[in-house]
Design brief:
With 142 residues, the chain is an alpha+beta fold. It contains three helices and six strands; from the N terminus they run ββααββββα. It has one domain: Hotdog Thioesterase (Thiol Ester Dehydrase, Chain A, Roll).
């Protein structure tokens, strides 16, 4: 498996993930909900690659992100011990909302396994109500 690192090309961010036994069902196939976990890691690492630490954002600016919508397509199964590539990019933002496009593919052959479009809301950590996205967080992407 490649070293844990990020690769930033034009607008996509890639993050490697290995499928562990705990991620699978009795047949060694990734349980469907775990794709959401992999994609959460992808969004978190997308932010981290841009110098945005979520704990610091919460502590210093009282901001957090919460997934509010997702449209996911399962195309092929991932299997125990597969090496995966989670790709993430921002496709839009407005107000308190940011939209992401994501995919999960097998690293060795590039086979596309899952795609998703999702939206996250920027929330005030004290009230859990929507708060406008800080402009500097997403200006570089759009």
């Amino acid at each position: 498996m490649p070293s844990v690192r990020t690769e930033l090309d034009d607008r996509w961010h890639s993050w490697p993930v290995r499928v562990y036994y705990e991620d699978t069902d009795a047949q060694g196939i990734v349980y469907f909900a775990n794709y959401l976990r992999y994609m959460e890691r992808g969004r978190t690492e997308w932010l981290r690659a841009r110098g945005i630490e979520q704990a610091r954002l919460a502590r210093e600016r009282s901001l957090c992100f919460s997934l509010i919508d997702t449209d996911i397509k399962f195309l092929r199964p991932a299997l125990f011990d597969d090496e995966l590539n989670v790709k993430t990019r921002v496709t839009g933002s407005s107000g308190a909302r940011v939209q992401f496009e994501q995919s999960v593919s097998r690293l060795d052959d590039g086979e596309l396994l899952c795609t998703a479009r999702c939206a996250a809301a920027c929330l005030d950590t004290n009230t859990l109500r929507p708060r406008r996205l800080p402009a500097e967080l997403f200006d570089q992407e759009l």
